């Protein structure tokens, strides 16, 4: 595939995606997702904002040390300290990139930066030159380009390219543009900037009006050859352009687009589920490509048509994006080899024997509770197993009992192991979940505000596991906790305890929430 025929996929799940409230990740979680992105064969992984915190710096550095194929990128504001920090973080990578940005819209320059246009251009040029001295691959973004003056954009982009920028990214930072308008902007800039042929043109679109993917694809038709996107469309506010939708639109409609990606599409679903499990942001059933209903047919007419000829109602093959076609039934009599084989087929990877052993033990425990283990069950328990080994558990659930009956106040009895010692507490609540949370609070004495309590069934059937996501906030820091069990109240207790452990942990969970593209 020639450069002209190839679209660069720049994944920013670990940076912009993490800026979703509650989606912060540990260093270990970022590395796990980075490995999955590498298997997915994205071209660039924006691993974080190294200057935001020591934790984010260490996370970017860890990703740079781990990733074998993709280029690893660090974001930096247009100042010396940020750029030096980003350069240091990506230095261990096989191939690194520094991505620097500064706002260019009138409202941002006047109200936020309080700088004149001349000062903004000067800062941009200085930043790009400094970044180029540290790394031969430098990306420049004029933040809020979608609301910037086109003449000023031409001026600052030309200066940035002259200073050494190899990629020019045009962000629709607030999701304001419409596809025809955004395509016109890309076309105009590429025509008017004299040295436009010396850089790769990129776009970064937000989904505030639901057109991030449409804007991105419209830009491709006008010569953009890099799209910045995230798994599941994760990101600030309404999110970013969804990687899986971009990739499959290009792959499916090669008749309409002049380029394609190198993405290994069969890794899309495993990567989507991994990101969902780690962040706690569930994928809605009707989500394109990766939603559980994406390839489901209930209408009799549709079912009849698909049975006769798949292409009557399906424009893609489910297996091409990672959905299984042949289901191996796993149960309590299944052995380690069958378990590992099915995990391999689903794209579930265990980096160590300890992770495999922990996951297999959880599988056997679950098999004692339900007759058939579904693929979705395997995804959930594998994520829990790896997290259990990598995270400081702090407090663990030893025993749980809850009594709930009509007309009576529910009471929960909880036993936790904390620092090697068992502690018991009972509490009453408005319901069994409320009672369980209060009993746990009585032992750990951690004050936090409950922002989100979400329950999802992992599979179908009355014996299905329930997956609970809890989001807690304390002192401006939001964390997610997850738990799964065939008993939804126990799953709730696990999720709540998981979130409290993360709040209590000394691990530096990064959530920069800083201005970006």
Walk me through what this model shows:
With 517 residues, the chain is of the alpha/beta class. The protein contains 16 helices and 14 strands. Strand 6, helix 7 and strand 7 form a beta-alpha-beta unit. Helix 13 packs across helix 14. The protein is globular, with a radius of gyration of 24 Å. About 4% of the residues have low confidence.
Give me the secondary-structure category. alpha/beta
Radius of gyration: 24 Å
Work out the helix count: 16
Name the helix and strand elements from N-terminus to C-terminus, one letter apiece: EHEHEHEHHEHEHEHEHHHHHHEEEHEEEH
Largest sheet, spatial ordering of strands: 1-2-3-4-5-6-7-8
| Uncertain residue segments | 297-309, 506-513
In total, the number of strands is: 14
Largest sheet: 8 strands, parallel, barrel
List the helices and strands and how they pair.
Blueprint: E1 8-11, H1 27-40, E2 44-48, H2 54-66, E3 71-77, H3 80-90, E4 96-103, H4 106-113, H5 117-134, E5 138-143, H6 150-163, E6 167-172, H7 179-192, E7 200-205, H8 212-221, E8 226-229, H9 243-252, H10 268-279, H11 300-308, H12 336-345, H13 353-367, H14 375-390, E9 395-403, E10 411-418, E11 421-428, H15 432-444, E12 449-457, E13 466-474, E14 477-485, H16 488-504
Parallel strand pairs: 1-2, 1-8, 2-3, 3-4, 4-5, 5-6, 6-7, 7-8
Antiparallel strand pairs: 9-10, 10-11, 12-13, 13-14
Helix pairs in contact: 1-2, 1-10, 2-3, 3-5, 5-6, 7-8, 13-14, 15-16
Catalytic activity: 3-methyl-2-oxobutanoate + acetyl-CoA + H2O = (2S)-2-isopropylmalate + CoA + H(+)
Organism: Spiribacter pallidus
Binding site for Mn(2+): 16, 204, 206, 240
